[in-house]
Each structure stands twice: as C-alpha cells, then as structure tokens.
C-alpha cells in the first residue's frame, strides 16, 4: 500500500499494472490496491448505505442489495457503527439515574466535551488546551471574530477568498455591520486570475504584502468547498502575521481530510464542523482553536457559565474565574448526545492516524484522477467525445480527497443519472460535481466502479444529443 515518498499515484498505478501484466485501467489494479491497503478494515466500522435505500435510485439499473458508492463524505460523513452504542449508554444512564449522570460514567455530562477533546490533538495538530468542542461552526466563527476583529481607523479590513462558503461570507458581512463599517471597502475579496478557477499562492501573498497594513483579520478556508483547493496555511499565516494581521481559518473541509499542524504553524485561530470528514452526524458538535500564545491576551466578548473554571464553577458566587484560552469561550454545557457521535468517530481516527489516512488519500484520489484523465482527457481528434475537466489542483500539496468535475455534457443530466445508478456525490453551482473518495471507508474498487458508471452515463448523454 505504501508508495515510496517519491512515487506519484500515477506511477504507482502503472507499476502495479506492469506487475500484473495488465492495462492500468484494468479492474485487477483496483483489487490489488485494495489488497495492499493497510487501512481497508476501517470500512467495517461504518454503515455503508445500500442501493435499495437511496431515494433517487433506479432499481432496474442496480443490484438493490449492493453497497452504494458513497463519495459524499465532504458533505456528510457516514455513520460509525459505535454511535448507537454510545448514545444508548447515555440514554440508559439518564433513564436509570437522572441527574447523577452529570458526574459519573465514561462521559460525565458536565465534562463530556473534555473527555474526548484529546482525541482531536492529532487531527488538528494542537495541544489539548488549544482546542474547544462546542456549538456549530458559524457560531464559533462569530465568537472568535468578536475577539480577534478589533478594527481601527487604519486597520479595518477582513481578507477572504472569492466564493467563500456562504456562511463565512455572511458572518464576515455581519461582523463588519456590527462595527458600522462599509462592507464594500472593508471586505477584501481575492479572486482567481481571469480564466482560472483557483487562487495562486503568489497572488494571495502579494495582496497581503501590499495591503496588510489595512487588514485586521485574514480569514480563509483551509480547503475551498467548491474547487477543492487546499490553501497553503503556513505561508498565509506567516505572511499575514508579518504585517500585523490576525490569521484564522475555517477548516470545515480540511479537518479529518488533510494533515494539520495549527500549533506549529502559529495559526491564531480556527474553527471547524464535525459532520463532514469527522463523521459526527448532521449538525454535529463543532470545534474551535486558539493558539496558546493568546491564552491570556485574547478573551471572549461573550461569556457563559462553562467558561468559568470547573474547580469553582459550582460555588455560584457570580465571580468569574475565566479559563484561559479557547475553553473560556465555551458558553453552555456540552450536548452529550452530540458528544457521543463525535466520540465514536474520533476513536477510529486515533486508531487509523491522520498520517496514514492522508497517505492513502493521496493514492486513492490520485487513482481517481488517473482514471478520469485516461478516459476523458481533451482529445482533439474526437471532438464529439464528452469532456470531463478537473478544476481541483493536480498538485498533491494543493488538494485533499475531493475532486470537483465539470462536464461538456449537461451537469444535471450527469448528476441525476449517477444518482440513479447508486453513486452518492453532490453538485454545487455553478457547474461542478464534487466527488470525494474518503480513505476511512472508500475503496479503490469504489473508484473503479464509479468510473465505469460515469462512462455509462456519459455514453448515454452522447446518444441523447
């Protein structure tokens, strides 16, 4: 499974094909890659939807008892099998002992978030005291911006990438309005060059260098939800801080997908959700990071009971003893049922490790890219053949597991017919279909089957025209 550090995914595919004496697009290559995959057993820790249970399925086109091809972990991760067990433990405790559950069991309700926060250390690359598990992503983003965005007459802008996720865009707009700042002047948006889909790091750094003195906060996605571009977090952080800016990231599409080293990179703050690659279920418990260097200097603008030190919290004397750092930003008691589902997933991550998952992900997505290019590279000799374009960067360092595809055939037709055949992915306006093979539960054979279904769909689109 482990390619050499210098072997690109395409080279691995071709090497295995040579060993098997078959074509690189042969099914035997996918099966061999799965045989050599040391992480393949983690698939058994998740429920994989069956074809027959998918609402858009056409049962005349599939075997109803087969597993779906689930490539939508970038939107909602699959359910770990232990979620139900952990939920039942807490429901049982509640039924049997009521309020005593606050202080006993493997997840006492008062400290439920604290009992699992250590499982996040490796995933985001931070110390336990730098991580808080609380709220939803946008709520955390607002709480962080209330403390880190302190505009002055000279430094009043927030820098973000074009087509940031709508929730981030709205959060920034509302923060600017809260301070009475004109949005068009204060919201500095970096757009890709004309004719390009993704941003160049040199263009980002140039804007920071030229305009940094007027920028209070840089807030970027770690990985762009639409294009799948992974931004150079350490380079952006270093450049922004050199100009006196606070630098933060929305890691919704990066956490659990790529390796992160927030502490070592010196990132000021970050936040993330847990229902995508972290598999904690819709509306799962979100996370926030504040670097330890700010523990005693950056304080929450809004304070609640659970930001008070636990040792004196229940004295009820209304004399705040604020926990330093991100945990002082906690406002309410942790929702224990959400803690359960996140706990079940994080335990799997601890066993698999981000380093090993990223290594598999590079090869898995590289295999997908190889197969798409093999069948659908732009062939000038046959102008009638459908074209599939990958707008996600081809460089491994600039992407996670997601590839965003565009088509010469009508996107809606392609998407709906993939759905009918049991492929679970999603479409995003204006014209992208996002495909995300997740290393925890997707196989190389999933990719092989997806490609064959894509061929079938595009062939039918050709005959339809």
Automatic annotation (TrEMBL):
Pathway: Cofactor biosynthesis; NAD(+) biosynthesis; quinolinate from L-kynurenine: step 2/3; Amino-acid degradation; L-kynurenine degradation; L-alanine and anthranilate from L-kynurenine: step 1/1. GO terms for cellular component: cytoplasm; cytosol; mitochondrion; nucleoplasm. Its main location: cytoplasm. The modification N6-(pyridoxal phosphate)lysine is found at residue 276. One of its GO terms (molecular function) is kynureninase activity. SUPFAM superfamilies: PLP-dependent transferases (SSF53383). It catalyses: 3-hydroxy-L-kynurenine + H2O = 3-hydroxyanthranilate + L-alanine + H(+); L-kynurenine + H2O = anthranilate + L-alanine + H(+). GO terms for biological process: 'de novo' NAD+ biosynthetic process from L-tryptophan; anthranilate metabolic process; L-kynurenine catabolic process; L-tryptophan catabolic process to kynurenine; quinolinate biosynthetic process; response to type II interferon; response to vitamin B6. Keywords: Acetylation, Cytoplasm, Hydrolase, Pyridine nucleotide biosynthesis, Pyridoxal phosphate. Its cofactor is pyridoxal 5'-phosphate. Its EC number is 3.7.1.3. Homodimer. HAMAP family: Kynureninase. Belongs to the kynureninase family. Catalyzes the cleavage of L-kynurenine (L-Kyn) and L-3-hydroxykynurenine (L-3OHKyn) into anthranilic acid (AA) and 3-hydroxyanthranilic acid (3-OHAA), respectively. Has a preference for the L-3-hydroxy form. Also has cysteine-conjugate-beta-lyase activity. This is Kynureninase. The lineage of its organism: Eukaryota, Metazoa, Chordata, Craniata, Vertebrata.
